[in-house]
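Quick one, tokens below. Sequence please?
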């Protein structure tokens, strides 16, 4: 990336706190890759594909409580998540939109897959996370957003997963980055933001404004 210095970070497996990163973990082959990247042609196609994968997860024995769907902010977010809920319903899967179908202090409910805007997902985890609409991860949508904000949202979505994360969205350069990360593992190579791009922002004010925009 022009004007940015490449940064390389490496964490050896013995320094990882997560057991699946250890070479001695007995179920490593059965777990397969903890990161899956899947591009689709439209958001409607994405919604149906995620719903079909969630249905397969549940059929294979996962509890709906162990699954979460979240992603970076984007246009018509409420409508998108309602459409996601409708797609899950067609597969006979019950779901809830956190903060819409629940009380403010309730994030998960037994028997339901949680669908969550990114700001509600922060601080919560699930064994498997579907990080959807990732084409917005490098595309500031609202006036007060910057590329750094979108990258932070993408990071939050990815790190909600305790084990597996499935990243989906329409075709975007972000998917090339993710595949490069998979190939470079256990190294993480990325262009650093300059100091001007890292100026301090009031996260609470930013989040509240964004919530109003995506409502």
């Amino acid at each position: 990336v022009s004007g940015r210095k490449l940064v390389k970070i490496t964490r050896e497996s013995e320094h990882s706190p997560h057991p699946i990163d250890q070479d001695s973990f007995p179920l490593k082959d059965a777990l397969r890759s903890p990161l899956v990247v899947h591009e689709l042609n439209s958001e409607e196609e994405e919604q149906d594909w995620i719903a079909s994968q969630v249905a397969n997860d549940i059929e294979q024995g996962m509890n709906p409580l162990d699954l979460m769907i979240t992603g970076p902010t984007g246009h018509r977010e409420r409508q998108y998540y309602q459409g996601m809920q409708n797609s899950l319903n067609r597969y006979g899967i019950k779901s809830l939109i956190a903060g819409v179908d629940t009380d403010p202090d309730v994030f998960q409910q037994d028997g339901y897959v949680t669908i969550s805007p990114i700001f509600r997902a922060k601080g919560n985890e699930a064994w498997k996370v579907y990080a959807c609409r990732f084409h917005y991860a490098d595309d500031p949508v609202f006036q007060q957003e910057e590329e750094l904000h979108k990258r932070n949202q993408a990071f939050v979505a990815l790190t909600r997963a305790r084990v597996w994360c499935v990243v989906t969205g329409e075709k975007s350069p972000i998917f090339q980055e993710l595949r490069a990360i998979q190939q470079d593992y256990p190294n993480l190579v990325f262009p650093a933001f300059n100091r001007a791009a890292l100026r301090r922002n009031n996260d609470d004010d930013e989040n509240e404004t964004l919530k109003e925009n995506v409502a």
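Strands lie at 6-10, 35-40, 67-70, 95-97, 113-115, 126-131, 161-170, 187-191. The chain has seven helices and eight strands.
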